[in-house]
Amino acid sequence: MQCERCRKANLIEIKMTVGESELTFRRCGKCELQAWRGEDGEMPLSRVLELAQVRR
Ligand SMILES: [Zn+2]
User: Fold this and answer.
1) What does the alpha-carbon distance between residue 32 and residue 10 come to, in Å, rounded to a whole number?
2) 4-52, pLDDT tens digit by residue?
């Protein structure tokens, strides 16, 4: 998979469950771009932290 920023195929993809959502975390080993993706697409870190706080 290719990084959106530096165009290097250097992305690490990790699936995680945060709160009640399954998210994908992507990190580029080259430029250190970090991105979260949920069911609706790209997700800002602030939203991820919000989800992480919702516990039942
Ligand atoms: Zn990159």
Assistant:
1) 10
2) 899 989 999 999 999 889 999 999 999 999 999 998 899 999 999 999 9
User: What residues does each domain of the chain span?
Assistant: 11-53
User: Ligand 1 centre from 53 Cα, in Å?
Assistant: 29
Who surrounds ion ligand 1 at CB < 5 A? 3, 5-6, 28, 30-31, 33
Q: With beta carbons less than 8 A apart as the criterion, state whether 29 and 22 touch.
A: no
Q: CA 46, CA 8: separation in Å to the nearest integer?
A: 26
